Amino acid sequence: MTAPASTLLQRVTGWFGGLPGKAADVLPVRVGGTEYRQSSSTPASVLGFDQALLWVVVALLAWGLVMVYSASIAMPDNPRFANYASTHFLTRHVMYLVVGFVAALLTFQIPMALWERVAPWLFVLALLMLVAVLIPGVGKVVNGARRWLSIGPIGFQPSEVAKFAVLIYAADYMVRKMEVKERFFRAVLPMGAAVAIVGVLLLAEPDMGAFMVVAVIAMGILFLGGVNARMFFLIAGVLVGAFALMIASSPWRRERVFAYLDPFSEQHALGKGYQLSHSLIAIGRGEIFGVGLGGSVEKLHWLPEAHTDFLLAVIGEEFGLLGVLALIVLFLWMTRRIMHIGRQAIALDRVFSGLVAQGVAIWIGFQAFINMGVNLGALPTKGLTLPLMSFGGSAILMNLVALAVVLRVDYENKLLMRGGRV
Questions:
Q1: Residue 24 pLDDT more than 80?
Q2: Which of 109, 127, 184, 279 is the residue whose CA sits 20 to 30 A from 86?
Q3: 3-class DSSP state for residue 156?
């Protein structure tokens, strides 16, 4: 690695809490407002988990619940949902939250050492689920995409499990390959092949948005794990080129890009640019302070998927610019906080736990960034939900499971810092 490339990699990974060098090099550990260093003579005085992070997550979930109800209250007026009560989506969302909380409580009880042991098997399970969803009669087709497995009356998306499985597997993989992380054929190529297999299965559904998230999670963990800078940027370039080729070779994806460039044109306003144009109208109507909770007009059958992919547009209309900025700040704070928990784990020489926590931050932060960018017209339309807030059982469940793992990492960090064992 050249000196400039090495210096750049060390600076960036240092900011994110990665591993440019030895895992336990004098990294500070901060609990509350007190800074500790890895030493048996300075145990932490606090045992538990990050309650500030927990309350921010609860706030986002509560705000999301209110907005899902607001955005879906007029859905029964649509002939497609004529048999639904006005509280149908609210009731289902509450059910998803209850299931998610139970799953999170159970997940919190699982030691990180167990996740490390089962990582390869979890990855295999995710692959089997992705294969199963493509089998006619097993996978459920909705809006032309075969993305759901039916579990009784509930549809479940294996792609959400794949995000979590790739995250756990990539962190475990980097720990196992730490001694040879500078070698392309022994470290980087096998991980690239694993992500490619997941990508092929996701694109067969098709679900390019989920593939983007999976690829970014895997690449982020490789980057923070300290792979060779040249190899990292080479693979990143290949991925960007692959996504560009997929867009260029797909007429409907090209149309989405053209519609993004000019959503209000006569050619696109009633076609591929319809969702984006009405999202921008909704946000524009909100101005600075919004029209008030429940006062959105665009959710009244003008803006498709207002309770899922375009929930932020309804938030912008009802809470205005200030509401959108507050939401962005909450997601930024949460992402940074989770990154910091990962940095604490690395300071305690718990590399797997640290990479898992940072992988969750990448997952939630990147997906929120894409969703917000789409709603605000900064990015082409892509079907990704707003984490923790949009309607959707699979996404809510896996988001809460992932955050429970982060809280477990933080719990084990503090347990070790006060001289305990995990």
A1: no
A2: 279
A3: strand
